[in-house]
From TrEMBL:
This is Peptidase S1 domain-containing protein. CDD domains: Tryp_SPc. Keywords: Disulfide bond, Hydrolase, Protease, Serine protease. InterPro entries: Peptidase_S1_PA, Peptidase_S1_PA_chymotrypsin, Peptidase_S1A, Trypsin_dom, TRYPSIN_HIS, TRYPSIN_SER. GO terms for molecular function: serine-type endopeptidase activity. Residues 21-263, 331-574 form the Peptidase S1 domain. GO terms for biological process: modulation of process of another organism; proteolysis. Pfam families: Trypsin. It comes from Phrynocephalus forsythii. GO terms for cellular component: extracellular region. Belongs to the peptidase S1 family. Snake venom subfamily.
């Protein structure tokens, strides 16, 4: 099953080609399924390489500083640009990350990552290339391939229907290439032209070069049956002239940088099992997250052993991980949060501007406040940002997803009224990571007693009328729960100076300090979460709704109580499992509906090995 098995089979080509034509010829359809056409305002400008379901690798120079990422789109699975394949995919980019060292043509750091607006579905014509690590080396002389829709020769554009081109070239090591680039120039030998993060490919005599390749496109090399993106087409002098081979960005040089922004970039690899495998042996835990595709496991066809191990999937077990972040320490006061501290925190954006907070409760549902939206709002204007510790200048763990549906509670009638709660469905499920997991939603019987210390987070004002300064780090504040009668009494004090008068309704709760000074109305965003920890799990107790002033005396923050809306939430998300924290083991309930819900859970796959012995010269084992 291609959809289920190809996630980790990077660098595997489904289309079989007996030979590859050397010298800038038409490629075979499906021969290079990771090849991407990067288009700006509908025009092809660069090549790129698919390295996972949602990430592209390309050159930094493909994103000029004045260009807006919103004007780019990626075309995947295409063969001829002017004769689009009916199964080709066009996706917009959510953002692009250009390496900070890039300073212009010919400089170091000519590498960029681009994230697709949502993960692409793998097909025989859309598959990722492998990323090399320290164990994969390609020495000088290795024959590799460059592909793209670039010029077939210098100054001549590719003719219709613009068929994908390919060329085979030998690698040239960095120092040898640097020597070649000094020939015929007055540049001192001590002045490096080819930097450590570059290498070359081509021929000293010229004639064959990456004229066939696009800027930003892939140079791929084969190792043990898998294709690795070793280089990115970067620059060169003219095209196919003597002593001026094409220059490429060395991908393995930037392995750590890529992992910084995309820690799960290495989707494939080989592992040696320790010890003997006998009947009944098992891998204790193979963590796999719901909504991600299954792995395919193979042995290379060069395997010398005559024994094949078949991996048989025997059982699944679901373990809830909602409300369990990787960061555990907390500081009191309206202060910066740590990365991964509140992995359910969401930023709701309208036309790219942050307007409200929210909380992730399943892989594709976010809960927030009804007052964040107008009844006639177009959902397509909204996006939800997850995994963010800072709103600006940091894309290391973020996922940005467009909104599909906005459902406001019908009881909501305006500011400070009941029913200030909304559910937002995303256009596709987010990928759970250490920095993006859902918070637990409590059952209706769960109580948060007065005095209980809970937390509110958001990117709100740090004081009355003072915006959160760049880079807009997520703020956190610990606040005690205030019982509803006390809160009503506090809000009755000096009520005349606040008009119109507001009432604390039964579906509301309060948290904060009677004396003011610290207030969630400052730190928290409208729609953001109020969270309480019970039995080692974080529960979504409330949603930031309203308040009077900011850190004013006798005016604690007011929240919509989640437990008042269990039935309403259940009707919209019937498979959501609510957490009954009043029981010692935090049993999950979902109002009588059964089955796995894809909520904040990690699928722990227990794989038992059944060893079958076959006499095969070339063994292939598949899950």
């Amino acid at each position: 099953n291609m959809e289920n098995s190809s996630q980790t089979m990077c660098g595997q080509v489904v289309t079989r080609t007996k030979n590859r034509i050397i010298g800038g010829e038409d490629a075979s359809r499906g021969a290079w399924p990771w090849q991407v056409s990067l288009q700006y305002k509908g025009k092809h400008v660069c090549g790129a390489t698919l390295i996972s379901a949602e990430w592209l690798l390309t050159a930094a120079h493909c994103f000029p500083s004045k260009a807006s990422v919103s004007d780019y789109q990626a075309n995947l699975g295409n063969y001829q640009l002017l004769n689009p394949d009916p199964n080709a995919v066009w996706l917009k980019l959510s953002h692009a990350i250009v390496h900070k060292d890039y300073a212009g043509d010919g400089s170091s750091g000519d590498i960029a990552l681009a994230q697709l607006e949502h993960p692409v579905l793998f097909t025989p014509n859309v598959l990722p290339a492998c990323l090399p690590d320290g164990t994969v080396q390609f020495p000088g002389g290795t024959l590799c391939w460059v592909t793209g829709w670039g010029e077939p020769q210098y100054g001549a554009s590719l003719g219709a229907p613009k068929t994908l081109q390919q060329i085979q070239l030998p690698l040239i090591d960095t120092m040898s290439c640097d020597t070649m680039y000094h020939i015929g120039t007055n540049i001192p030998p001590t002045t490096r032209e080819i930097q450590d993060d570059m290498f070359c490919a081509g021929y000293a005599a010229g004639k064959k070069d990456a004229c066939s390749g696009d800027s930003g496109g892939p140079l791929v090399c084969q190792e043990d049956g898998a294709w690795y993106v070793a280089g990115i087409v970067s620059w060169g002098d003219m095209c196919a002239i003597p002593n001026r081979p094409g220059v490429y960005t060395h991908v393995s040089f930037y392995e750590n940088w890529i992992k910084t922004y995309h820690p799960r970039a290495h989707d494939c690899g080989c592992w040696e099992l320790q010890g003997e495998i006998r009947k009944g042996s098992r891998f204790r835990y193979l963590p796999w997250k719901l909504n991600e595709r299954l792995w395919q496991m193979t042995s290379p066809d060069t395997c010398q052993s005559a024994r094949t191990v078949l991996f048989k999937l025997l059982s699944f077990s679901l373990s809830p991980v909602c409300g369990r972040p990787i960061v555990l320490n907390r500081n009191v006061g309206g202060e910066d949060s740590l990365e991964g501290e509140w992995p359910w925190q969401a930023s709701v954006k309208k036309l790219g501007k942050h307007i409200c907070g929210g909380a992730l409760i399943t892989h594709n549902w976010v809960v927030t406040a009804a007052h964040c939206f107008r009844p006639d709002d177009d959902p397509s204007q909204y996006t939800v940002l997850l995994g963010a510790s800072k709103l600006e200048n940091d894309w290391s763990h973020k996922q940005s997803v467009r909104v599909k549906i906005i459902i406001r509670n019908p009881r909501y009638a305006g500011e400070a009224t009941s029913g200030d709660i909304a559910l937002v469905q995303l256009v596709y499920p987010v990928r759970f990571t250490d920095y993006i997991i859902p918070i637990c939603v409590p059952t209706a019987n769960v109580e948060f007693p007065p005095g209980m210390k809970c937390w509110v987070t958001g990117w709100g004002d740090i004081s009355e009328g003072q915006d959160l300064p760049p880079p807009k780090k997520l703020q956190k504040l610990q606040v005690p729960i205030i019982d509803i009668q006390t809160c009503r009494r506090l809000y009755s004090i000096d009520m005349g100076q606040y008009l119109p008068r507001k009432q604390i309704q039964d579906d509301m709760m309060c948290a904060g300090y009677a004396e003011g000074m610290k207030d969630s109305s400052c730190v928290g965003d409208s729609g953001g979460p109020l969270m309480c920890k019970m039995n080692q799990e974080w529960l979504l107790a409330g949603i930031v709704s309203w308040g009077e002033g900011c850190a004013e005396r006798n005016r604690p923050g007011v929240y919509i109580r989640l437990t008042s809306y269990q039935d309403w939430i259940h009707r919209i998300i019937p498979n959501l499992k609510f957490v009954d924290a009043m029981k010692g083991n935090n049993r999950l309930t979902n109002q009588g509906t059964g089955g796995a819900d894809g909520r904040g859970q990690i699928l722990i796959i227990t794989i038992l090995l059944q060893v079958l012995v076959w006499t095969l010269n070339h063994a292939l084992a598949l899950v």
